[in-house]
Design goal:
elongated, 2 helices, binds zinc ion, 2 domains, five-stranded antiparallel beta sheet, Chitinase A, domain 3, mainly beta, Thrombin, subunit H, four-stranded antiparallel beta sheet, single chain
């Protein structure tokens, strides 16, 4: 069975940057499962997996435009510390949810200067090529319940 819209795909992966450093990977023996064709993966990876079958191994390079986007300076802003309510200790590198000019989003604290905090709303992997090594473990059709929920149930999925 090959991957098409509404397939449930189970796979192991590792993700490297252009220097070959592993940024992320599935845990050993715990492959990830996703519902294909529903925007659950970055677009460039989902497109490359279309038509592939269980047992295949592939290497996929995804450019920022097809991944987490280009970095945008407009997503970097300074806010007063008091704007970040409910957070006792603000440290550089911390990830938090903040109200920004673009609405609520996950941001990274990149600097703390006196009473001002610099927050960066770019995805941590924005502007980077994503180099995936994929090992396709299983491909099956989604159940009606999974389609209704828009995600996978069982091992590697939700519930
Ligand atoms: Zn569900």
């Amino acid at each position: 069975m090959s991957i098409k819209k509404d397939s449930v795909v189970t796979f192991n992966y590792s993700l490297k940057d252009d220097a070959g450093e592993v940024i992320d990977s599935s845990a050993p023996g715990e492959p990830l499962a996703y519902l294909h064709g529903h925007g659950n993966l970055v677009p460039g990876l989902e497109r490359e997996l279309e038509g592939k079958s269980a047992g295949e191994k592939l290497t996929v390079k995804v450019t920022p435009a097809d991944g987490y986007g280009e970095r945008s300076n407009e997503l970097i802003q300074k806010v007063p510390r008091r704007a970040l309510k409910g957070i006792n200790k603000i440290t550089v590198g911390m990830r938090l949810h903040a109200q920004t000019q673009q609405g609520p989003r996950a941001v990274t604290v990149t600097a703390v200067t006196g009473d001002m905090v610099t927050i960066d709303g770019n995805h941590p992997l924005a502007g980077q090529n994503l180099n995936f090594d994929i090992d396709l473990v299983d491909v099956r059709d989604a159940t009606e319940e999974e389609l209704a929920h828009g995600h996978v149930h069982g091992p590697g999925g939700h519930h």
